[in-house]
Amino acid sequence: MKRFFEGWTGLIQPWLWNIIIIVAAILLGLLIKTIIKLLLRLSKNTGEYSLYRSLLVHVGQPMNHLIPLVVINIMLPLVDLGHDYYNIMAQCFYIALIISFSITLIRSIRVFEDFVYHTYDLNKPDNFKERKIRTQLKFIRKVTIGLIVFITIAVILLSFDSVRKIGAGLLTGVGISSILVGLAAQKSLSNLLAGFQIAFTQPIRIDDVLLVEGEWGRVEDITFTYVVLKIWDERRLILPINYFIEKPFQNWSRISTEILGTVFLYLDYSVPIEALRAEFTRLLEQSELWDGRKNTVQVTNSTDKAVEIRFLLSSDNSSHAFDLRCYVRENLIKFIREQYPNSLPINRVSIENKVNTPTSENLII
Predict the structure, then answer these.
(1) Are the C-beta atoms of 289 and 320 separated by less than 8 Å?
(2) Which end of the chain is less packed: N or C, by CB atoms within 10 Å?
(3) Which secondary structure element, helix H or strand E, spans residue 223, and what is its range?
């Protein structure tokens, strides 16, 4: 095969031969890429998840330059160039191939991420395991991408002989520079270590319900340096990641999403407790938000004017619990107003007139 191509080089001008080789390599690479994409399209299904569709979406674009570059690097020895020019061209295509391959690797992580997201779906009531795995996956993906970028830069730099020599000379000063960089980046390193600690000890996870700084919301994103909390009214609370290591906060879904809720009413002493208990049970049984675990009515306090009645209920998550509390409170007030209006809070005033003859001091207007 080599003799065959060498025979052709004697018949064609070198510059034309080089153009033919490069164009042929590009066309061959594009042909191979097209065939692979066609096979992936034929294999993908129209269901909720498809590995082939995920490959097309995430890896399809990098394949446009990866496969032609692979073919060019394979056919490059056939190019008729001088030694110096050949080395420069080979170096350029080699670096382009490394960059293209690293981009393809980074995009391939998304394919794996799609598979994990499909396997561990968050859209179910008991998603503790899914939230745990997704939180860890986010940190693993970012660390992996960082390693790929670092290795790619290292391989490119090591391909130059001059850089190797400079690097050997810089090793003598790396101790002092590392100390200076460490002091300058102390806060960033603290956040980075806090991120790793959160990823694997997991005081918080993706989609956890938190009460932080008096705000209720869900964990929307966790990065190496900060956490994004989506507040119930669509605002975003951004907190440094080491906040969750150093300060206390409430996690309402640490072990499970089930939660208890309370409704307090302040009523007159004449209120019939048993009637309220029966109505409360009826309201819970009619609501899909109640999970059936807790149903308690208790008089928890009394003052000189009213009694405090606590209605304790349960739900499968905090959002449902809030809606259920509002539903119960509204309907109990309606029930008392219609059935026992005298049981609403009443201020009693007793006026005694001890003087038979009215005077200006005891006249009531």
Answers:
(1) yes
(2) C
(3) none
What are the pLDDT digits (tens) for 311-335? 999 998 888 999 999 999 999 999 9
Distances (CA, A) of 18 to 25, 29, 165: 11, 17, 33
62 located within any domain: yes
Closest CA to 227 of 189, 235, 218: 218
In Å, what is the CA distance from 222 to each residue of 117, 125, 236? 16, 22, 13
3-state secondary structure of 314: strand
CB 314 within 8 A of CB 334: no
CA distance 202 to 227: 13
**356 is a domain residue:** no
DSSP-assigned states of every residue in 267-305? E-TT--HHHHHHHHHHHHHH-TTEEEEEEEEEEEEE-SS
What CA–CA distance (Å, rounded) separates 270 from 324?
Answer: 27
The model's pTM is 0.56
What are the pLDDT digits (tens) for 46-79? 556 667 677 777 777 777 777 777 777 777 776 6
| Residues β-bridged to residue 315 | 259, 290
